[in-house]
Design a protein that fits this description.
42% of the residues lie in helices and 12% in strands. It has 344 residues and is α/β, with parallel strands linked by helices.
Length: 344
């Protein structure tokens, strides 16, 4: 498919390279190369994803006859909101990725929508990099619907990356259609809702229904890649069985829940918010043993140190009442430990 007005021809399913931070260089290389061999040509990473960029470089062997640079579409991101930071980040990314240009350079979840001459210098820096050919296309990523809409309406960005799965609602669907109407490429992050969606087949079939949406599946294990490669071959369609799964998941996860994006961090009390604030969901949806280890119990106990400073609330793109979520999860967790609540 064509990624909006960029003109980039991408496989309908992209490779989300955030999770390979948690795999070794050799494991990552094996996964990435298999993805490439099976037609996946769009790889999304970020300067903020520790060694993810370097692992893509390692996987593609610095680009050569086996992995021609022009056959790989690389999207990376900067969290910079001023010229100096963006110019520093692009140099680091180019070096890490072993390339002299970036296909799609995205501004990474900024607190505002940079525009030309707004005084921040951010968009002006992006345009200068575009003008000199260092970046081929400019994109915007956000977890906030209002900023995503503003970026699309600005006419300055060629792609929008935004959370989208079958758990999202009318507001998110409206952004997909707004992107379509403006020929903006829509890149779906959190297509498995931060790991809370249990059926990858249902997630794949739902998103595949939207012809202007490119999901970037976050992959860190070969088994995960194999699942999505199998769907690319069989092209499963939404049927009664999958619709039933989606309805059940929507019922279980309706209302406020932590998506695990991690933007609330760091916590002054060292609470792992993105894990602890959704522990109840994890424990009920997946085998509970890994969440009941002594290490997990210590992490949950840290919730007792919460001072309700609400720094996390001010950072949360979903405007969740995080201290309240932490309390609820901790009370639930203690009941599970005591046996008052039974789980599988």
């Amino acid at each position: 498919m064509i990624l909006g007005k960029t003109g980039l021809k991408v496989e309908k399913n992209g490779f989300g390279a955030l999770p390979i931070q948690r795999a070794s260089f050799d494991e990552s290389a094996e996964i990435v190369r298999k993805a490439y061999a099976n037609g996946i040509n769009f790889y999304d990473t970020a300067r903020a994803y520790t060694d993810s960029e370097e692992k893509l470089n390692y996987a593609f062997k610095g680009f050569n006859d086996e992995f021609p640079r022009e056959s790989v579409i690389i999207a990376t991101k900067t969290q910079g909101t001023d010229r100096k930071t963006i110019e520093k980040d692009i140099e680091t990314s180019l070096d890490n990725l072993g390339t002299d240009y970036i296909d799609l350079y995205q501004i990474h979840n900024p607190p505002f929508c940079p525009t030309e001459g707004d005084g921040s210098g951010a968009y002006d820096a992006l345009f200068d990099l575009y003008d000199e050919g260092t970046i081929r296309h400019i994109g915007f990523t956000s977890h906030k619907a209002e900023l995503a809409e503003e970026a699309i309406h600005s006419g300055l960005y060629e792609t929008i990356q935004f959370p989208f799965s079958y758990l999202t609602g009318e507001k998110e669907l409206a952004i997909v259609e707004l992107a379509r109407a403006n020929n903006i490429g829509f890149i779906a992050m959190k297509a498995m809702s931060g790991g809370l969606i249990r059926s990858s087949k249902a997630a794949y079939s739902y998103i595949n229904h939207f012809d202007n949406v490119v999901p970037i599946w976050g992959i860190q294990r070969m088994s995960e890649l194999d699942e999505f490669l199998s769907y690319m071959k069989t092209n499963p369609q939404l049927d009664d069985e999958l619709e039933k799964i989606i309805r059940k998941e929507r019922e279980e996860l309706q209302g406020d829940f932590c998506r695990g994006c991690g933007y609330c961090m760091p916590c002054p009390q060292d609470i792992e918010i993105f894990q602890c604030a959704r522990m109840s969901l994890w424990i009920r949806r997946f085998p509970s043993a890994p969440s009941l280890t002594p290490e997990s119990q210590e992490k949950m106990k840290k919730i007792e140190d919460c001072t309700e400073c609400r720094q996390c609330v001010s950072r949360c793109p979903y405007e969740l009442d995080i201290p309240e979520l932490l309390k609820k999860n901790y009370e639930d967790y203690k009941k599970i430990l005591s046996g008052e609540i039974k789980v599988d």
